[in-house]
Amino acid sequence: MTSSQDLAASEAEKNIVKAKAAPPEVRHARAPVSADSLKHRELRDGEWWRRLYPDVGEEEFLSHVWQMRNSAYGEEKLVDLIQGIAPDDFIEDLKKGFHLVPMAVRVTPYLLGLIDWDNPWEDPIRRQFIPLASQLYPDHPMLTLDSLHEQKDAPVEGLTHRYQDKALFLVMDTCPVYCRFCTRSYAIGVDTDTVEKVNLRVDPKRWEKAFEYIESRPELEDIVISGGDTYNLPAKHVRAIGERLLNMKNIRRIRFATKGIAVMPMKVLSDDKWLDAITDVLNLGRKLHKEVCIHTHFNTPNEITEITRRAMNVLFERGMTVRNQCVLQNGVNDSAETMTLLTKRLSEINVQPYYVYQHDMVQGVEDLRTTVQANIDIEKMVRGVTAGFNTAVHVVDAPGGGGKRDVHSFDYYNRETGVSVYTAPSVKPGAFFLYFDPLRELSDEIQAAWMDPKKQKEMCDQAIAETMRLRQNR
């Protein structure tokens, strides 16, 4: 081989080495993401509560006992706390609002510290818990206190048996906070100026009647333990109820329902007795090959902080599955951007998005309801931003006890009158369930029609007749 050939061979070898050393060109199927698309990883941290509670350090703030003792319960306590921080006209507005709604006000320091007190009128956390007279609307005439007919579908007090294999067990009537939009405003909390509550207080004798019914129905396999809020159950009752249900031959699944993780996550970090009790129930379920999980209730990404992450890490390490049930609300989370951020932030802390509910047709919160179409549009935008198992199903809990129906699955929807019709053949065959869009989203003419009982009936009858016609033509 000549010297020139040797040189060429050497250069070729060098090029091969360079080619092997050089990183391969990366082909991107999608454009690089913006920083906003990773916002779900940025959780609020630091002592952000000090604006309201300047003398409270982290150790004290993370005590569930301190949180409960210092919750703003009632008008006077809340006003005293925010005087000089919230605008004066806002305070006058809430004083009037307190006396116009069916739910009492009770808010934890954790939530109060997260509210933007420079603009509390628009804050999504404030909207859910503190009513303002200026933002309230007259009720749609079709609203009721028990729109889901939970009491009518209760064979014994505090136990709703609607689906064939599932029952809802209401064990108590208190919560760590009181949500304005509560579907059980007929029972939860103390009496208000507008509502005298049904009594569902903690009562083992009442529970025993529910247990006897559950055992007598072999088709029942799934029990939701709710209320009220199981966060407020003493550890001994958490353990007793869980063990009693799991030891029934017919029961395969139990779920503890609590908004507590969203509104007071420090209980998981500081109430060892409660945490150990629910963990013991979880471990018993595993030994018996039965599912135990928690269903919680975050509505906005603003509710999720580094404290939340710490609490969820504890539950995750103990093997607890946590799912989220969210309510779509006007001015709180009724945009694709907000719901996308909530979906991804829940996934970030190992909470599985489960349901997004169309706001139930309960009285006193017409300002928070949205149209069915808004829910459909948001679901369409959110689906596909993450994996399917981490994407909530958007549902209407059909008024009148039809159960949860996919929001898209209406049999008929008249967007002019705001009437949508759902059917539930596996729950109540042959029945029609009507949902009504909020009046403020309808024309002045239709709003006036809803004030006339005769025209109300005509619009409802027309929707059902059209539903039957469409079904016959399929």
From TrEMBL:
Residues with the N6-(pyridoxal phosphate)lysine modification: 404
Pfam families linked: Radical_SAM
Keywords: 4Fe-4S, Iron, Iron-sulfur, Metal-binding, Pyridoxal phosphate, S-adenosyl-L-methionine
Gene3D superfamilies to which the protein is assigned, alphabetical: Aldolase class I (3.20.20.70)
InterPro entries: Aldolase_TIM, Lys_aminomutase/Glu_NH3_mut, rSAM, rSAM_sf
Signal among keywords: no
GO MF term (any one): catalytic activity
Cofactor(s) the protein needs: pyridoxal 5'-phosphate
PANTHER family on file: L-LYSINE 2,3-AMINOMUTASE AQ_1632-RELATED, LYSINE 2,3-AMINOMUTASE-RELATED
NCBIfam families, A to Z: KamA family radical SAM protein (TIGR00238)
Name of the molecule in the record: KamA family radical SAM protein
